[in-house]
Each structure stands twice: as structure tokens, then as C-alpha cells.
From TrEMBL:
<dbReference type="InterPro" id="IPR008274">
    <property type="entry name" value="AldOxase/xan_DH_MoCoBD1"/>
</dbReference>
<feature type="domain" description="Aldehyde oxidase/xanthine dehydrogenase a/b hammerhead">
    <location>
        <begin position="39"/>
        <end position="145"/>
    </location>
</feature>
<dbReference type="InterPro" id="IPR016208">
    <property type="entry name" value="Ald_Oxase/xanthine_DH-like"/>
</dbReference>
<protein>
    <submittedName>
        <fullName>Molybdopterin-dependent oxidoreductase</fullName>
    </submittedName>
</protein>
<dbReference type="Pfam" id="PF20256">
    <property type="entry name" value="MoCoBD_2"/>
</dbReference>
<dbReference type="Pfam" id="PF02738">
    <property type="entry name" value="MoCoBD_1"/>
</dbReference>
<dbReference type="InterPro" id="IPR037165">
    <property type="entry name" value="AldOxase/xan_DH_Mopterin-bd_sf"/>
</dbReference>
<dbReference type="Pfam" id="PF01315">
    <property type="entry name" value="Ald_Xan_dh_C"/>
</dbReference>
<feature type="region of interest" description="Disordered">
    <location>
        <begin position="1"/>
        <end position="30"/>
    </location>
</feature>
<feature type="compositionally biased region" description="Low complexity">
    <location>
        <begin position="1"/>
        <end position="22"/>
    </location>
</feature>
<dbReference type="InterPro" id="IPR000674">
    <property type="entry name" value="Ald_Oxase/Xan_DH_a/b"/>
</dbReference>
<dbReference type="InterPro" id="IPR046867">
    <property type="entry name" value="AldOxase/xan_DH_MoCoBD2"/>
</dbReference>
<dbReference type="InterPro" id="IPR036856">
    <property type="entry name" value="Ald_Oxase/Xan_DH_a/b_sf"/>
</dbReference>
Length: 769
């Protein structure tokens, strides 16, 4: 033992000095909080504490649709340790909230519209007391028949004062009389998926001496949440402050305000700090899910396989409230034809209210559902024409300069054909017969019940596209401040770090622009100017652009005195590796020396070019930018049992510019794995509007054992000139594309149509073997 220790010490002492860590854009800079998160010391909302803390619990409806006859809180109020019980009667006025469309009450008052809708909230001195008191609230319901089929929502009685139809988009592009020599049709259904964050929702509300309240939350859009909370509390926005805590996993805006709003009301009522930590069941009941979707398609093509016309009907089930359904429908209709050239398109889309759980923003909303359908159509077209599936896609691939069915010209890089050719030509994995028996798995896992003779291999393709930033006239703007003092830079920006890597990117931007190694990103709260929601790559583009502009302004402040002293402009000076040099070598100094005794700062905004809403015919320049992905899936299917094993997913993606290689690869791999779950396992079942098994036992997420080999075979770095760094969002498009590719591969293996996601075992069974 002592000798081993001595050897280890000697080796450490004689080891050469470590190279300085690379920094700046293009380097794989690690997350600043990576160590704290891996060691379990990073503070999340569930870890927070305050003196005199009370605990909150929310009573939720056990019914999908019911009329509330009466609410009796007497027994709950009389329980020892209970400090407050609140219902709709305790909410000032009749405020409404919701991520996109504010149409839901804080607490149901007359009607319950979905399973899990909040009815009352309790604050008590112990979490168990709070939960028992919430259960002691007596609610008399008149149970009503729920409307759970979105097709029935058109004729059903209005479920909401705003009616059942949230949005209708009829897209007309080209000649309605156009026809093709070959026609294929299909009906497709996409199930309901849950974001399933690794940490359930939690928060802390602390009353302020001025009669306001501070909320400590894992919010992804703090300023929007602050404004909504203030309206629901009957307070001016400046008396409500949101402090963003660590976000324990977010695949979109998954933090529903239904968890946040009761906290502040209880804190204001009791005058004490109040904390709420949701159970996994409450998390499933409370936040929004992916839109279940029904899609009908008809593709027309000529004899060579080139598309002539696409007709489609798309119906999104929004659940009880609108949330972001109007935006999701716009994406679904706009991208209903996929990354293909389609001269004539007639798409009709609807988003409707039902008594199902609310649907909302989940990564790739709208685009994922239509991708599964149009790629199934491309497989059908290839089969009918006797074409290779990849070739059928290549003949129709979209490129820069082509026109989308919404009438918008694709001005950003669109290397769709290059992406597809890359994954098509990538070497296929070895067949089981070429591999030692112990090195390959049967579908169903290591102990799968299948027989090798029943296993068939399939290869399939998926091409996907998503939009970046907001759309249809959304004002995307972010503000950032960069301060430099004592050789240390600090970034202040209300862009929330949800795991997408913004804090790392902000450090890299400042390091590259100013040559300063030590850069800190300040915690986020609503005292800072707004930066918007953390989704669709907007913080890389808009917030990162604001940080870059502010850093460049500080750079000018730093270089101007030196340039003036040597009689030259700042453009003739450069900062590299912490040194300032002139073009002619006359000036050479370090950034540290130039900063000595100085405190510099600057604030800047970034706002992308404007977009416009889709018009009455579904036409308009609605999107700032687009991102594309191609995936080739290889699967093994046991055609007797219907079990599927994904062997490999080869990915080629249009990324614009790689800003952090390791981080980018991790985001793509995570997106692909999420797509695997959508394709095979994730289905939140809601018979008669009731969520069945709202837990991670009943809702099957893919595990490490389910994850296939993910091969990132190419990253196309063709910069988008309108983006601050030329980079594109990378997380959503593999989520959109992977399910379609896996379904395509299962079709190739079985010859079955596979028209539903997730893929049921019976859909992969071959009976006529």
C-alpha cells in the first residue's frame, strides 16, 4: 500500500505541467456547474429553505370533466398545523394564465376541464399535513361526459368560453387541379408524450416587506412568468420578483405556471415563506404534454418519383386549454411536406380543445408529428415506384433558394441532399451472422424470449426540419451586459441555462472577444432586462448575439486609448491568446496590462429580422431560420413477437457552425435518444381523459440499455449569415427526425405499414411468414 502511494505521488510530482485549457468559440469548454451537479451539491428549487417555512399542497380534480357543485374547506382549515386554504375565491379578479394563450384559471371554479386541474391549495407546517389537508377539502362534483376524441370536438358543446376550435389554418399553394401519375395515401396517429423531466417541479415563495413576493423557481421564461404572476396576484409587476434556480432537466418550457401561482398566493396570505415540491404523479398531472395528432395524407408524384402535389389534413388535440397549440399548428402545417420541393400543396390544420390533459410546447412540437407522416408517405411512394427509399427522397430534396409551401423562400443553408447522401453511404453495422453470438442482442433485451430465426433487419431513413426562434411576427429580443473589473469579466443576461449550454457559450464569447480567461455568468432574476424563453435555439442566437455585441463594445472601450496613443484605429488591433497586438507589430501588450485600474462595461441588445403571421391562405415569411437533419436507422425486429431493437442511428446534421464540439455532440445524442423513446416506448395513456399510471413505471422512458449506437457521421458547417455566429439550433431536429427513421426501418424489416407512434408490437408482427 505504501509503495503504491509513493509511486503515485512521485508520478504526480514529475508529471509535466498541464497545458492551459482552450477557450473561446470552437473549444469544448466544460460547463461551469458540471462538477457541482455531478457531486450533488448544485442547488435546485427542491433544495431551498427559509426560516419559518410552510409547505404547500394542491388539490387536483380526479375527473376529466365535471361541474363543481360546491367546495367545502372547513375540515381542512380546522386541521392542526394548517395555516391557509385557498380556492378561486381567493384569487383577485378573474385572471387567466397560459404559455401562449392565457385561457386557464388559477383554480377551477364552476367547471373542471381536465384530470388534475387545480381546485384548491393548502399551506401547512409539514408537507404531510399539507397533503392531508388538501385531501380533506370536500368537493361535490356533477360528473359530465368528457370529450376525448378531437374529431368529436367540432360538434360537441363548447368546453370553454372561447369555444373548442383554437385555430384553423388552410394552406393553399399552387394549382389545386394538379395531379400525379402515382398517388399514395395514409392515415397516421401520433400518441401523447410527456417531457418527463429528471426533476419534478418545485418552488419557493417568500413574501416581501412591501407587500410583494419573491418566487424562486426553475422558470425558463422568468419575465413572462413574473408578469402573469403579478396579474394573478393583483400586484404591479415591480412587486413580484422571480429568481431562477437550477433547472433539473427541461426539454422545452415544461415548467407549468399552475405549479407556481398557488405558491405566491399562499405566501401573501400567510406572510410566511411557502415551498412546494411536486410528486412525480403531480408532475404528470400538471404540466403540458406533446400534442396527440391525427394526420391524413395524399401524395401525388410523376413516374420518376418527383412530387407534384401534397394534400393533408392535420388535427392536433390541444387538451383542455390552448397553451402554445396555435404555434404548434403553424409549425405542423408549414412543415407538413417536409424538406422536399413540392410545387402544389393543400394542407388543412386544426387545433381543438378536448377534456384530455393540456398539450403544449414539447421539443419539436408540430414538426415531429408531421415528419413521421410525410416520411411514411415517402416510403410508400418509393415502394410503389420500385425506387430505393433514399433515392426517392434525393429526387425531391429541398435546397437553398427553393420555396416552401407557405411561400417563403429558403435563404438559409439547406444541405438536405448532402445530409441524406452522407448517412446513406455510411457503412452499415455488421449483421448478427457476422458477429459472435455473445456480442449481439435479440430484440427484447439480453433475456429476450425471441428466436434468432425470427429476427429481420431493416434500414430506414428520416429527413426532418424545424424552425428556429419564434415565428409569425414574434418579437425576439434579448439584452445582455458585460462588465470587466480587476481582469475578471461578468455577464448579466436573463437567458436561463436549461442544459442547452448558454452559460458556457457566454463565457466562450467573452473569452474570444476580450481575451479574458476568467468569465462568470451572473444568476438570473427579473431585475435584469428580459431575454425571452429558453427554446428553439433562441439563446444561442439572440442572447448569445447580445452578449457578443456587449463584449465588442467593451473591446472598443479597451482598445481605443491604445489606438489613440499609437495613432491608429481600433480595427488595426487584435486580441489573441490574451495579447493585444497591432497589424504592424509596433504595439504588443497583454490584456491584463491594458485593463489595469480600469472598470469597463456595456449593455447591448440583439433582435433578429422580423417575421410575419401566416395569412388566410397559410402564406407568409413566418420563420427566421430553419435547421435540417438526416438519420439512417438500422433495426432488428422479431417478427413473431413484434419486439424491436434499434441497432444503430447514423446522423448527419446541418449545424451552421460548431461552437462547442463536445456539448454539441451531447445535445444531438440526447435528442436522438429522446426520439427513440417517442418511436418505441413513450405513450401517456389517457382513457376517458384520465391519465393512467402517472409515474415512471407506467410511462416507459428509454434507458441506457435501450440506447443504440449513435454515429454522428457529419456536421455540415455552412454558416447562416443572418445568425450572430452562423450557428443553428441542434437539439430539436434530431428529436423530430429519429422517430420517422426508426418507423421507416421497421417498415423495411416487416413490410408492414407502421402508421402509429409509438410503434405497437402488433404493428411489427408478420403473420404470413
Amino acid at each position: 500500500m505504501s509503495n503504491e502511494a509513493g509511486i503515485a505521488t512521485t508520478a504526480a510530482e514529475t508529471a509535466p505541467a498541464a497545458e492551459p485549457s482552450p477557450h473561446g468559440l470552437g473549444a469544448s469548454l466544460p460547463h461551469a456547474d458540471a462538477r457541482a451537479k455531478t457531486e450533488g451539491t448544485f442547488p435546485y428549487a427542491a433544495d431551498l429553505w427559509a426560516e419559518g417555512l410552510l409547505w404547500a399542497a394542491v388539490l387536483r380534480s380526479p375527473h376529466a370533466h365535471a361541474r363543481i357543485v360546491s367546495i367545502d374547506t372547513t375540515h381542512a382549515r380546522e386541521m392542526p398545523g394548517v395555516r391557509a386554504v385557498i380556492t378561486h375565491e381567493d384569487v383577485p379578479g378573474t385572471p387567466r394564465h397560459g404559455r401562449g394563450t392565457p385561457d386557464r384559471p388559477v383554480f377551477a371554479s364552476e367547471v373542471v376541464r381536465h384530470h388534475g386541474e387545480p381546485i384548491a391549495a393548502v399551506a401547512a407546517d409539514h408537507p404531510d399535513t399539507a397533503r392531508m389537508a388538501a385531501a380533506a377539502v370536500i368537493v361535490e362534483y356533477e360528473v359530465l361526459d368528457p370529450v376525448t376524441d378531437p374529431e368529436h370536438a367540432f360538434e360537441a358543446e363548447p368546453l370553454h368560453p372561447d369555444g373548442n376550435l383554437i385555430r384553423h389554418i388552410p394552406l393553399h399553394h399552387g394549382d389545386p387541379e394538379a395531379t400525379g401519375e402515382v398517388v399514395v395515401e395514409g392515415l397516421y396517429r401520433i400518441g401523447r408524450q410527456d417531457p418527463a423531466p429528471i426533476g419534478a417541479e418545485a418552488g419557493l415563495a417568500v413574501p416581501r416587506p412591501d407587500g410583494g413576493v419573491e418566487l424562486y423557481l426553475a422558470s425558463t421564461d422568468p419575465h413572462s412568468d413574473r408578469n402573469t404572476a403579478a396579474a394573478c396576484y393583483g400586484l404591479p409587476p415591480d412587486r413580484v420578483k422571480i429568481v431562477v434556480t437550477g433547472v433539473p432537466g427541461a426539454t422545452a418550457d415544461r415548467e407549468d405556471q399552475g405549479f407556481q401561482l398557488p405558491l405566491g398566493l399562499l405566501a401573501l396570505r400567510t406572510g410566511c415563506p411557502v415551498k412546494l415540491t411536486a410528486t412525480r404523479e403531480e408532475s404528470f398531472l400538471g404540466h403540458a404534454h406533446r400534442h396527440p395528432t391525427l394526420l391524413r395524407y395524399r401524395h401525388h408524384a410523376d413516374a420518376e418519383g418527383r412530387l407534384v402535389k401534397v394534400e393533408a389534413q392535420i388535427l392536433l388535440d390541444a387538451g383542455a386549454y390552448a397553451d402554445t397549440s396555435a404555434e404548434a399548428l403553424a409549425a405542423a402545417v408549414s412543415f407538413a411536406c417536409g424538406p422536399y420541393v413540392v410545387p402544389n400543396a393543400f394542407i388543412e390544420g386544426w387545433a381543438v380543445r378536448t377534456n384530455n390533459p393540456p398539450s403544449g410546447h414539447v421539443r419539436g412540437e408540430g414538426a415531429m408529428q408531421v415528419c413521421a407522416a410525410y416520411e411514411a408517405q415517402m416510403d410508400k411512394l418509393a415502394k410503389k415506384l420500385g425506387l430505393d427509399p433514399a433515392e426517392a427522397r434525393l429526387r425531391n430534396a429541398l435546397a437553398t433558394g427553393d420555396v416552401l409551401p407557405i411561400g417563403q423562400t429558403v435563404t438559409c443553408p439547406a444541405p438536405v441532399a448532402e445530409l441524406l447522401q452522407t448517412v446513406r453511404d455510411f457503412p452499415l453495422p455488421a449483421l448478427p451472422k457476422d458477429t459472435p453470438e455473445e456480442e449481439w442482442l435479440l430484440p427484447g433485451g439480453p433475456e429476450g424470449a425471441g428466436e434468432p430465426g425470427a429476427v429481420r433487419r431493416g434500414v430506414g431513413y428520416g429527413l426532418g426540419m424545424v424552425h428556429m426562434l419564434g415565428a409569425e411576427g414574434a418579437d425576439e429580443v434579448s439584452t445582455a451586459t458585460v462588465k470587466v473589473h480587476d481582469g475578471v469579466a461578468t455577464v448579466l443576461c436573463a437567458a436561463v441555462e436549461t442544459g442547452q449550454g448558454f452559460t458556457t457559450l457566454a463565457r466562450q464569447i467573452v473569452q474570444e472577444t476580450l481575451g479574458i480567461e476568467e468569465v462568470h455568468v451572473a444568476p438570473v432574476d427579473t431585475d435584469q432586462p428580459p431575454a425571452g424563453a429558453g427554446c428553439r435555439g433562441r439563446h444561442t442566437w439572440v442572447s448569445g448575439g447580445a452578449v457578443e455585441r456587449a463584449a465588442k463594445m467593451v473591446r472598443t472601450q479597451l482598445l481605443q486609448p491604445l489606438a489613440h496613443k499609437f495613432g491608429m484605429s481600433t480595427e488595426l488591433l487584435q486580441i489573441t491568446d490574451g495579447k493585444i497586438t497591432s497589424y504592424d507589430g509596433v504595439l504588443s501588450t497583454t490584456v491584463t496590462e491594458a485593463l489595469e485600474g480600469k472598470e469597463l462595461w456595456a449593455t447591448a441588445q440583439c433582435r433578429p429580422h422580423p417575421t410575419e403571421p401566416l395569412n388566410a391562405s397559410g402564406q407568409g415569411d413566418a420563420y427566421v431560420g430553419l435547421a435540417f437533419c438526416a438519420i439512417r436507422a438500422v433495426v432488428d425486429v422479431d417478427v413473431e413477437l413484434g419486439s424491436v431493437r434499434v441497432v444503430e442511428l447514423a446522423v448527419a446534421q446541418d449545424v451552421g457552425r460548431v461552437l462547442n464540439p463536445v456539448q454539441l455532440a451531447a445535445r444531438i445524442e440526447a435528442g436522438v435518444t429522446q426520439g427513440l423513446g417517442i418511436a418505441l416506448t413513450e405513450n401517456l395513456r389517457t382513457p376517458r381523459g384520465l391519465i393512467r399510471h402517472p409515474d415512471l413505471t407506467g410511462y416507459a422512458l428509454p434507458t441506457a440499455l435501450d440506447a443504440p449506437d449513435i454515429r454522428i457521421v457529419k456536421l455540415v458547417e455552412e454558416r447562416d449569415v443572418v445568425a450572430p455566429f452562423g450557428a443553428k439550433s441542434v437539439s430539436a431536429v434530431p428529436v423530430v427526425t429519429a422517430p420517422a427513421a426508426i418507423a421507416s426501418a421497421v417498415r423495411a424489416a416487416t413490410g408492414r405499414p407502421v402508421n402509429r407512434l409509438p410503434i405497437r408490437p402488433q404493428a411489427a408482427v408478420v403473420t404470413d411468414r
